[in-house]
Description:
This protein has 273 residues and is an alpha/beta fold. 40% of the residues lie in helices and 18% in strands. The chain has a single domain, classed as Vaccinia Virus protein VP39 (Rossmann fold, 3-Layer(aba) Sandwich), CATH 3.40.50.
Amino acid sequence: MSLAGYSAVAEPASSREWAVALFRRSVLKQRKLAEITSALGPTEGRRCLDLGSDNGVVSLLLRERGGDWASGDLTEAAVTSIRSLVETDTHLVEGDRLPFPNATFDRVVVVDMLEHVPDDATFAAELARVTKPGGRLVVNTPHLKRTALRRVRHALGQTDERHGHLRAGYTPGRLRELFGSQFVMGPSRTYSRFFSELVDTLVNAGLARLGKRSSAKGMVVTGSDLSRHRRTFRLWSALYPLVWTVTRLDAVVPASGYMLIATAERRGRSAQT
């Protein structure tokens, strides 16, 4: 991950461009996408599903990799924002049930959504139901760990409740318990260590000051939100190279990361993997 594609001068012209521009100025979001695409494997010629993209930028960038994609999320606001970027095949997920037929998808990506669903065991069974035999599942979720930074976040009002989390996070062992009966679990790893998460904490504090309210999916920041705060965006753009440099200090932190990503393969045979 680098500063490639970053521009401190060019200002977005449309809501879509605003949303992508904010993504390009988030170290954590770019790292998340890199981890997801690395775990996902080839998508060209495959039927794919992403769940939990929030404002739709992840959905947009995943579709650019090729494949026939559908997208879904838990709130009307999130689905509307996703639809504004990708336009087609977007769906509202009601509770822990998925609105798709059995064995539909070759690739399924769950982006920071597992911790939001009412019943994660039912949701895991639904993911197995819609994934083809031999299909790949990628789950990205907060890593459950107790740290001083978590206490600081709570002191700033950034609680699990405010972010719409029904569970604080997961461990690799808990993911194996949820998915292991219907998926062959692959490797899991953590990423986003102290300095990246500290920056994210400060950004969320700033969004709260701008009046962003939480929902069942936390704070969903859309392109239209950003276009109303052009001065703040310009300031953040000017500071971003410094912020990016600070997050490089993660390399000297020996602890595990605050985000967890795991891969799994649906049990059964498939002609395509």
